[in-house]
Structures are given as structure tokens and as C-alpha cells.
């Protein structure tokens, strides 16, 4: 009776343990039915159920003295469940440590299935099963040699594999439970007495219950209970990362916190630089690799950068056959997780967390943790980059400010910057000295910059008879508003300055800056030059006029005489005329630049007609056809008739000079843009494009094929430009070598100004 009660009690405990294990595992299987680990454990659990069911059936019927057929069926179930549990335990441990590749796992699974099926068939088709029931009702049976061989093969390999990958399994209770199950099977083989009392079955069921509890804790309870803790941890990590501003500190903090969060062996951060990834920070990894580069698509980090999704690898050396992420990755990396750091839909970089070869394996929960950390890390990286850029920009601006202030301080030209209320923002020493001199102080002694800076100009010059603004204030303000610059002459402390005023700030001016260039010596030199030119030209006029008069008398005397002498006299007269024109051009240019006092309303049609008459003889001698097309409604202009006439004649003469015999010259005029547009078109040699900007310079003459025979001083077109500018007009040209030249002159009509 005592034996019966003991067996019933052991059986009840086994059934209860197995029922709890089944219930817990059904919850795990319901949440994650496709996980390989769960599939293998389900098979293992099924085999344990067979073993337990066979033991309960066989021992109970034997104690009750029941049907021998049922006892035999129980023994067969024991044999099948025992061998099947040993065989299915191995792939479960393999998947637990993820120590083998998919091919090997599938092969072992297929081999295990074949063995289990063979064992089941073998037990089902045999007529007799070796067992006996003693007088006390205890069931005695023995395992066949094939089952013993399979037990030692599978369980021995399982224990060996479990020992080698013990550090890779995070749930420490599982290896202990697996070891306890193997011990239970070993007891079942070696100790029939304990086997008769179902002790091995109870130990096996208890170990299965412990494994079910561990899996439930790992896959169900742990994630649910730890979610709040994980979020809090990630928040704390994010705060730790965000508390740093410098980019390198931010990267080091991210790598360190990621290592601590996953209890990993190391971490690395690769930043995306254009089309490659660059290692920027490491934690518990060699810093000598910083700066190592990979192309997008290379390595695990390159794959993550290319796809934008996390990548988890159980065994780097076994499972990754692409480009290694680091030179020593294949020999040192175990389990690896790479997640993208995305901010604003832009990948900032890749976080790579690494375990060593003998360390634990990352799970899906670890990937989710890093995915939670990733956005905060990306924001911190973006902030760090912005901080670095701002810091670099601030340093650059400070250096530029120091450099500019050094230049402005050392220059001899006065420089003053004022705001919109004319309060001085900056004044260099030259400006301070000038103001002191204007106010009657001793400018030889250096004055402090506080004499000007921070004060309004009107307050500084109050009581002093100084007018530092231009005469035409409206034109000054209009030019600053439209062109943001204005230039005028200013006389201070008995010196003449060219004052360049420019707007300060854009798009809205916050003030103005004025640079004063001392042109006193230049003005004096220009005045002296003008006097010398006029004096020299007038001094040359008288002897030149006398020489031309005597040449004319000589020509009259030689009329009908020696033709050779007549030719010589003609050449002398032509050269004297050329000299006279040169002197007249110089004098006219000086007069135009010093200002014109004779202004009148000019009818351009009559002026242009007179200009055509003026060059008629020269055109005939060159064999050219000169034509005109002058609009009847061409407007009048206000200006100096002589100078405008001279400018038109100069352009026509130039066209005649540079047009080969048989060519054409066309003079046109028409209304245009509130003024008159005068055009002179020829079929001459043309001007290269690179010389267009220089043809209006003084004494410039283009040297090109077809112009060797043309003489001139190079003053004609410079006089034209001076005259047109004095009348607030424009002059420009279009020309190509061999295609002729078109010269345009635009003059404003009465009351109009230069077009915009």
C-alpha cells in the first residue's frame, strides 16, 4: 500500500509539473509560434509528455494488476518518449545558443525526426516488449541497446555543447534545467529502483517546468514587466547623451550607454559622410580604428545604412560572409546588432553593438531597446554636429573680425561705421584722428576710440562748421536705397577726401560704413596736369597755325610747278592737320571732364545731318557708301552741341577708317527708352570680343590684321565716352572680327535720365 501511495504521489506531482509546463509554454507559443527556439521546445515537450504518459500508464496499471497489453503500451511510450526527448533536446540547445548555422540545424532536425520515427515504428511493430511486474506491483523494464546508444549520443553531445556555449545563454536557469533533465534520464538508465518510483520522470518534468518558466520569463513576463523599466532606462540614457554638446563627447556617450544598456562587450558608431561610412567613436574597442571607412553597402553597418533597418547576427564569423566591418571583426566579433540612427528621415550614422565570441547572444528585445535609443542618439548627434558647426563658425567669425579689425586699425584711410540713427559703431584710429583734427584738437596725439564710438555724429560735430553730408541729400539716399553705395567728395581739415558710403547689412541695411580716401595730392596733381595740357596745347596751337598757313602759301606758289614738291607740301599739310586734330581732341577731353557750361536744346536730326556732311569727303576718298536712316520723331536732347557733334563725327570717322574700300557705313537714329538711340554700323574689320572693354580707354588702339595702315592717337573713342557720360547717357558696341562693328549711343531726352 505504501508503494502504491508513493507512486501515486510521484505521478501526481509529475502530472502537475507537466501540466504547468504545458500551460506556460502554450502562452509562449501563442505569442511567438514561429520562433525556432519555441518550435524545438514544443517538440521536446511533446516527447517528454510521451515519456511521462508512458510512465504513468505503465506503473499505474502494473500496481493495479491490470491488463498486460496496456502495460506494454506504456513501456513502448516510455521507450519512444525517452529516446525522442534525448534526440529533441539537442536541437533545442543548439537553437538556444544559436551556435550552428541553419543548414546544420535543419539537418540535425531531419536526422532526429528519422530516428524518432524509426524508434516509434520499431516499438509499435514488435510483438513483445521486455518488461516484468514483481510481486509488489512494481514495473521493471530495460532499454534496448539502440535507445541507450542514442541517449549517450544525443545527451552527451548536448551536455558538451551546453558547456561550450554556457556564456552565450543569458537565462542561467535553462542550462541547469537541461543538466537536471539529462541526470533524470541517466538515473532512469542506471537505477531501476528509482525508476520504479517514477523519480526520473518527476525530475524530468520538473526540469521541463523550469525551462518553461524561463522561456515564459524571457518572452512574456520579462518584456511586459521590464517595458517601463526599459523606457525609463532609455530615457535616462537619452538624457545622459543629450547633456553633452560637443560631437565627440556625444558619440562617446552614445557608444558607452549602448554598451551598458545591452551589457555588451563593445560598441562603435559610424557616421555617414556623403557616400561612405566613417568610424567616429568606439567603446571597449581599439581607438586606432577611428577613421576607418566603409562604402555604403559594405559590412553590417553598410547594409544597415543601405536598407535603413536593423540587422542582428548571432555569430559574426559563421553568419556574415560580406566585407568585415573592422579588420579584426571575423576573429573577435560574436553576436552583433546594427541599428540606423535616423533624424528627420535622414540617416546620421550607424550604431554597432558587439559581443565577444564567448559572450551571450543578442535577442529581439535587445534590438528593440536599441531602436528606442536610436532616435534620441540621432537627435543628439544632429545637435552635436550643429554645435560643432556653430562653434567653428563662431571661431571663424571671431578670427575674421579680429583680422578685419586689425586691417582697419592699421590702414591710414579713415573708416567709420554708423547705425541708422548715425550712432558710431566703429571708428579706426585714422578716423578718430581726423575727427579730432576737424574739431580743432591735436591730432598728433593718439585719441581714444571712445571719442567717437557709441556717440552720434551730429552730437560730435555740434557747434563745428562741418558739413559731412553730400550736397544732394536726395540723390545720396536714393542711391543708397537702390544701389547700396554712393561716392562723393568731402573736404575736411583742409584735405579733400573721396568718401565711399555703402549700406551695412542685408537685405535691410542696419547702418552704413564710410571709407575716406585722401585725394588731396591727386586733385592737385590732376589740376596741375590739366593746366600743363592746356598750356602746352595752346603753346602748340600758334606755331602749328603759322606752319599750316605757310604750307598753304607754299602750295599756292607751287601751283603749276614741280609736282613732286607739291606732293611733299600736301603731305606736310596733312600731318599738320593730324597734329591739330590731336591737340583739339586733348583740349576737348579736358574741357568735357572739367564740366560743360554751355547747355541747350539740340535737334538731333539736324546735328546728325551736319555730321554726315562733315565726313562726306573722307568717305568718298575711301570709296565707301555712307547712308542714313533717321526717324522723324526722334526726341531732342539737352547738352553741348559742339561736343555731341564732335562725338558723332569721331564715331563716323572711326567707321570710315576701319572699313575697307567698297564697304558701307550706316547711321541710324530712333526713339528708345525715354531718349534717343544713335547707331553707327560699318562693314569693317571688326574688333575681337576680348578688346571690347578697352576700346574706349585713352590712347588705346587695337592691333589686328587690316588696321596696319590706319593712323590715329586713340583719343577719339575716349572723347566719345566722356561726352556721352557728361550727358548722362550710355555708349557700347557689338563687334566680331571680319563682321564689322555697331556702336550704340543712348542719350536721354529733355527731363529724362539714364534708364534702369
Number of discrete domains: 5
- The percentage helix is 55-70%
Q: What is the CATH fold-level name of the largest domain?
A: Rhopdopsin 7-helix transmembrane proteins
Report strand %: 15-25%
Kindly report the name of the CATH homologous superfamily of the largest domain: Rhodopsin 7-helix transmembrane proteins
Question: Strands of the largest sheet, in order across it?
Answer: 5-4-3-8-7-6
**Helical stretch count?**
22
Oligomer category: single chain
* Biggest beta sheet attributes: 6 strands, antiparallel
The CATH architecture designation of the largest domain is Up-down Bundle
Distance, first to last CA? 122 Å
- State the total count of DSSP E strands: 20
Structural class: alpha+beta
Shape: elongated
Summarize the structure.
The protein has 756 residues and is an alpha+beta fold.
Structure report:
- It is built from 22 helices and 20 strands.
- The protein has 756 residues and is α+β, with helices and mostly antiparallel strands.
- The chain has five domains: 2-223, Up-down Bundle (Rhopdopsin 7-helix transmembrane proteins); 244-390, Beta-Lactamase (2-Layer Sandwich); 411-518, 2-Layer Sandwich (Beta-Lactamase), CATH 3.30.450.20; 524-590; 596-748, Heat Shock Protein 90 (2-Layer Sandwich), CATH 3.30.565.
- The strands form five sheets. It has a six-stranded antiparallel beta sheet with strand order 5-4-3-8-7-6, sandwiched between helices. A five-stranded antiparallel beta sheet has the order 10-9-13-12-11, with helices on both faces.
- The longest helix is centred in the middle third of the chain and has 47 residues, at 364-410.
- The chain starts with a helix and ends in an 8-residue tail after the last strand.
Amino acid at each position: 500500500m505504501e508503494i502504491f501511495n508513493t507512486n501515486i504521489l510521484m505521478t501526481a506531482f509529475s502530472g502537475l509539473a507537466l501540466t504547468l509546463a504545458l500551460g506556460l509554454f502554450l502562452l509562449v507559443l501563442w505569442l511567438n509560434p514561429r520562433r525556432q527556439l519555441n518550435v524545438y521546445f514544443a517538440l521536446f515537450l511533446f516527447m517528454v509528455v510521451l515519456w511521462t504518459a508512458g510512465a504513468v500508464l505503465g506503473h499505474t496499471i502494473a500496481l493495479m494488476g491490470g491488463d498486460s497489453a496496456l502495460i506494454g503500451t506504456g513501456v513502448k511510450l516510455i521507450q519512444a518518449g525517452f529516446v525522442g526527448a534525448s534526440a529533441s533536446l539537442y536541437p533545442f540547445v543548439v537553437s538556444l545558443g544559436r551556435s550552428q548555422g541553419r543548414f546544420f540545424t535543419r539537418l540535425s532536425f531531419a536526422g532526429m525526426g528519422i530516428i524518432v520515427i524509426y524508434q516509434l515504428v520499431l516499438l509499435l511493430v514488435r510483438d513483445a516488449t521486455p518488461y516484468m511486474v514483481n510481486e509488489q506491483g512494481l514495473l521493471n523494464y530495460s532499454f534496448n541497446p539502440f535507445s541507450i546508444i542514442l541517449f549517450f549520443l544525443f545527451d552527451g553531445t548536448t551536455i558538451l555543447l551546453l558547456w561550450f556555449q554556457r556564456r552565450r545563454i543569458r537565462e542561467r536557469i535553462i542550462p541547469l534545467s537541461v543538466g537536471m533533465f539529462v541526470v533524470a534520464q541517466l538515473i532512469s538508465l542506471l537505477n531501476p529502483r528509482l525508476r520504479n518510483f517514477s523519480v526520473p520522470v518527476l525530475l524530468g518534468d520538473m526540469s521541463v517546468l523550469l525551462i518553461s518558466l524561463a522561456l515564459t520569463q524571457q518572452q512574456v513576463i520579462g518584456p511586459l514587466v521590464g517595458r517601463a523599466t526599459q523606457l525609463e532606462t532609455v530615457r535616462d540614457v537619452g538624457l545622459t547623451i543629450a547633456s553633452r554638446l560637443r560631437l565627440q563627447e556625444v558619440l562617446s556617450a552614445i557608444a558607452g550607454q549602448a554598451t551598458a544598456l545591452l551589457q555588451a562587450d563593445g560598441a562603435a558608431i559610424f557616421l555617414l559622410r556623403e557616400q561612405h561610412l566613417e568610424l567616429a567613436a568606439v567603446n571597449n574597442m581599439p581607438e586606432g580604428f577611428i577613421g576607418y571607412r566603409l562604402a555604403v553597402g559594405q559590412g553590417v553597418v553598410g547594409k544597415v545604412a543601405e536598407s535603413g533597418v536593423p540587422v542582428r547576427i548571432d555569430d559574426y564569423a559563421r553568419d556574415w560572409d560580406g566585407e568585415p566591418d573592422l579588420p579584426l571583426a571575423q576573429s573577435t566579433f560574436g553576436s552583433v546588432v546594427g541599428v540606423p540612427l535616423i533624424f528627420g528621415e535622414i540617416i546620421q550614422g550607424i550604431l554597432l553593438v558587439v559581443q565577444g565570441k564567448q559572450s551571450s547572444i543578442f535577442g529581439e528585445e535587445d534590438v528593440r531597446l536599441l531602436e528606442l535609443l536610436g532616435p534620441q542618439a540621432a537627435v543628439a548627434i544632429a545637435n552635436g554636429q550643429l554645435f560643432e558647426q556653430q562653434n567653428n563658425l563662431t571661431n571663424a567669425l571671431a578670427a575674421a573680425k579680429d583680422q578685419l579689425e586689425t586691417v582697419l586699425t592699421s590702414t591710414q584711410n579713415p573708416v567709420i561705421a554708423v547705425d541708422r540713427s548715425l550712432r558710431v559703431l566703429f571708428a579706426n584710429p585714422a578716423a578718430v584722428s581726423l575727427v579730432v583734427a576737424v574739431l580743432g584738437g591735436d591730432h598728433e596725439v593718439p585719441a581714444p576710440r571712445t571719442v567717437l564710438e557709441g556717440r552720434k555724429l551730429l552730437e560730435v560735430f555740434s557747434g563745428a562748421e562741418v558739413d559731412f553730408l553730400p550736397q544732394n541729400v536726395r540723390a545720396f539716399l536714393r542711391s543708397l536705397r537702390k544701389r547700396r553705395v554712393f561716392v562723393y567728395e568731402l573736404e575736411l581739415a583742409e584735405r579733400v577726401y573721396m568718401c565711399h558710403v555703402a549700406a551695412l547689412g542685408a537685405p535691410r541695411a542696419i547702418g552704413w560704413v564710410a571709407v575716406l580716401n585722401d585725394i588731396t595730392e591727386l586733385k592737385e596733381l590732376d589740376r596741375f596736369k590739366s593746366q600743363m595740357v592746356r598750356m602746352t596745347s595752346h603753346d602748340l596751337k600758334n606755331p602749328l597755325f603759322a606752319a599750316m598757313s605757310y604750307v598753304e602759301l607754299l602750295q599756292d606758289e607751287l601751283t603749276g610747278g614741280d609736282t613732286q614738291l607739291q606732293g611733299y607740301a600736301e603731305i606736310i599739310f596733312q600731318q599738320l592737320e593730324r597734329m591739330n586734330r590731336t591737340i583739339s581732341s586733348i583740349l576737348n577731353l579736358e574741357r568735357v571732364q572739367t564740366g560743360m557750361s554751355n547747355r541747350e536744346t539740340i535737334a538731333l536730326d539736324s546735328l546728325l545731318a551736319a555730321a554726315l556732311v562733315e565726313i562726306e569727303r573722307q568717305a568718298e576718298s575711301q570709296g565707301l557708301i555712307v547712308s542714313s536712316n533717321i526717324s522723324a520723331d526722334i526726341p531732342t536732347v539737352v547738352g553741348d552741341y559742339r561736343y555731341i557733334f564732335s562725338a558723332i563725327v569721331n564715331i563716323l570717322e572711326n567707321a570710315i577708317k576701319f572699313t575697307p574700300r567698297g564697304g558701307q557705313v550706316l547711321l541710324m537714329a530712333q526713339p528708345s527708352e525715354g531718349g534717343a538711340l544713335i547707331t553707327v554700323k560699318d562693314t569693317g574689320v571688326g574688333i575681337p570680343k576680348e578688346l571690347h572693354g578697352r576700346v574706349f580707354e585713352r590712347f588705346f588702339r587695337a592691333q589686328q590684321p587690316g588696321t596696319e595702315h590706319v593712323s590715329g592717337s586713340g583719343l577719339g573713342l575716349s572723347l566719345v565716352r566722356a561726352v556721352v557720360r557728361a550727358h548722362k547717357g550710355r555708349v557700347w558696341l557689338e563687334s566680331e572680327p571680319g563682321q564689322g562693328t555697331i556702336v550704340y549711343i543712348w542719350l536721354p531726352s529733355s527731363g529724362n535720365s539714364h534708364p534702369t
